[in-house]
């Protein structure tokens, strides 16, 4: 198998699926965290909302680029562009992991505290949001690993 | 510069410095978290202690291996061994980041809560421990990136 056709790297359908997964999970995480919940009282939740607000436009842009590459049968192979994509992916995946785990740490603490501190209705939404952020991180790690694998062949 | 002499990869003095940094920071983080503080009441703190307990023996072993390689002038260049080291480094660096950020999230929450919840003496130790864990993650990320960079040349 040629390095130019690594499944999951930019311009393949596997990459498009990974990007769509990132968009879906990070949007769902953002929605569960921000709608109807007072997330701004915890720094970690604000951080999660900020990071998800960065991940969504990034993944949407790259999903569009992937879709275009597949339709035009012209995958991105310029070293400069790919380097920007790989670095961006890595930075965002590190930030997503940090946000997801700090949220998970706080959710765990709130679930053990008494109910006045965190009504069950809110807590389950926080929990769901942090699980979705972990899923989004998983997809993001996949994209960045596959693109990193492609890099030495260019 | 040949790929065989990437500074920071296994068997160079830069790698030895990175490993010693990991050992120092993760030991300090473990000591501040575990001595005289009731860390077991928070899941995230237990997770940090567990992860640090994994990172310390791993880094000590690799620091010894690095020291031996430098003295014997015989760097490790077997693909199998290097692959195990890279994968182990990545897994531990991801775990360290997750533990450090969940601890940081909880410390931030405790610092905002009232003092009955977290006496200042304890809180500053938790904070210091999470900062040291971030430093340990930084060094661990360095090692794993440099070794990953060496991998395609083997």
Q: What do these coordinates show?
A:
Two copies of one chain form a homodimer. Chain A contains four helices and no strands. Chain A has 154 residues and is an all-alpha fold. Chain A starts with 12 loop residues before the first helix and ends with a helix. The first copy, chain A, has helices at 13-34, 43-72, 79-112, 120-150. Chain A is elongated. The model of chain A has no long low-confidence stretch (mean pLDDT 85). The interface between A and B is medium-sized, with 17 and 17 residues. Chains A, B: The chain crosses the membrane at residues 12-33, 39-67, 79-106, 126-151. Chains A, B: InterPro entries: CASP_dom (IPR006702), CASPL-5 (IPR045009). Chains A, B: Its main location: membrane.
Short précis:
The first copy, chain A, has 154 residues and is mainly alpha-helical.
Total beta-strand segments of chain A: 0
Unreliable stretches of chain A (pLDDT < 50, length at least 5) are none
Helix content of chain A: over 70%
Q: Helices and strands of chain A, in N-to-C order?
A: HHHH
| Secondary-structure content class of chain A | mainly alpha
The interface involving the most residues is between: A-B, 17 and 17 residues
Domain tally of chain A: 1
CA gyration radius of chain A, whole angstroms: 17 Å
| SS element count, helices of chain A | 4
Write down the oligomeric state.
homodimer
The pLDDT mean of chain A sits at: 85
Distance between the termini of chain A: 15 Å
Strand proportion of chain A, as a percent range, falls in: under 5%
Q: Characterize the main sheet of chain A.
A: none
């Amino acid at each position: 198998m040629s390095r130019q056709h690594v499944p999951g790297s930019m311009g393949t359908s596997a990459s498009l699926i990974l990007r769509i997964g990132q968009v879906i999970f990070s949007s769902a995480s953002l929605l569960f965290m921000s709608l109807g919940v007072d997330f701004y009282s915890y720094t970690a939740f604000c951080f999660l909302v900020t990071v998800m607000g960065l991940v969504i436009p990034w993944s949407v842009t790259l999903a569009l680029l992937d879709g275009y590459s597949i339709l035009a049968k012209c995958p991105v192979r310029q070293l400069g562009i790919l380097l920007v994509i790989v670095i961006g992916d890595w930075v965002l995946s590190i930030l997503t992991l940090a946000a997801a785990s700090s949220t998970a740490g706080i959710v765990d603490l709130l679930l053990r505290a008494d109910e006045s501190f965190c009504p069950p209705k809110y807590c389950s939404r926080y929990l769901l949001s942090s699980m979705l952020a972990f899923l989004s991180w998983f997809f993001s790690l996949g994209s960045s690993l596959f693109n990193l694998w492609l890099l030495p062949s260019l």
